[in-house]
Amino acid sequence: MNGGATAAARAHSNIALVKYWGKRDATLNTPAVGSISVTLDALYTDTRVTFRSDLTDDELWLDGCRSDATRVRRVLDLVRGYAASAGHPAGGQHAVVSSTNNFPTGAGLASSASGFAALVVAATGAAGLALPARELSILARHGSGSAARSIFGGFAEMHAGTASDGSDSYAEELQGRSAWPLAVAVAITERGEKSINSTIGMVESAATSPFYPAWLDSADGDLAEMRAAIAARDFTRLGELTEYNCLKLHALMLSTRPALIYWNAATVAAMHAVRELRSGGVPAYFTIDAGPQVKVLCLPGDAEVVRQALAAVPGVHEVRMSTLGPGAYRLE
Ligand code: DP6
């Protein structure tokens, strides 16, 4: 074993309140629309990166299984570029990446978001680089657009950007997690891998849905309103806009050919349970990504009643409770 430069990092998953769907440039992985998310304390990825002179290629181990390293290689190539300029030996070496999630991988719980954010912090750490958070966010974006936001804690905003080199497509923190404590319940309705990954799904939506132009046109308005709701700590406004933006995304997905139907029966039942909670006076709002899980935002004092209501929904296997989480950081 040729022990090389190594570092480990933890990054938390995030869920978008105003969602990213659609790419401006597929090679640079720049988004067609900005997005706003909250980082989740309870769901995270731990990743170790070790650069070694004896390797002939990069290796990825995901939850103990050897996995396809194509996307990881894309990010590592960029890190190697920085390392080579800084004269670090990692610039000319391949790496072993081992990553573990504390939640089901690939089931719409944003494992790519936490995964690529952890990868970037661990890889740049192993390569002896101290890059500003904005650079880390850009590197993470090359792995997965949503990962750019998981570099930050609390509330984060990803900018779509306009530059042809992608240099203004990065996320930044809008508000720290302690400024406005919120709770998020994650109702897990399926543990398996999702059918169509987001990368493919969003390309299909752009190519086939007649709603895609409207999705693009209405994004800036949603972002401005969400920024205002967060700044004013107006939970009703934040929640209503979160649900509206989520359902607008799913209308876009449903109008894609072939249709992207990410919901199962329990997903729909959980949405109704949230609306019933609201009729009963509990402010709670759902959001759903490219998978069947339902994430519910509520105030910390209502977390237990929301957890119980979701756990009682037929088909909900488990409810994970979370507060808002921190940005990505080095372990050790
Ligand atoms: C529905 O970040 O997974 O979760 O950039 O192609 O890797 P790629 O896509 P990804 O898409 C996330 C889509 C979403 C909404 C969001 O997180 O904003």
TrEMBL record:
UniProt-listed InterPro entries: GHMP_kinase_C_sf, Mev_decarb, Mev_diP_decarb, MVD-like_N, Mvd1_C, Ribosomal_Su5_D2-typ_SF, Ribsml_uS5_D2-typ_fold_subgr
One BP annotation, GO: isopentenyl diphosphate biosynthetic process, mevalonate pathway
EC number: 4.1.1.33
Name recorded for this polypeptide: diphosphomevalonate decarboxylase
GO annotations of cellular component type: cytosol
Pfam families cross-referenced by the UniProt entry: MDD_C, MVD-like_N
Annotated signal peptide: none
Annotated NCBIfam families: mevDPdecarb
Keywords: ATP-binding, Lipid biosynthesis, Lipid metabolism, Lyase, Nucleotide-binding
Domain Mvd1 C-terminal: 185-312
Domain Diphosphomevalonate decarboxylase-like N-terminal: 11-171
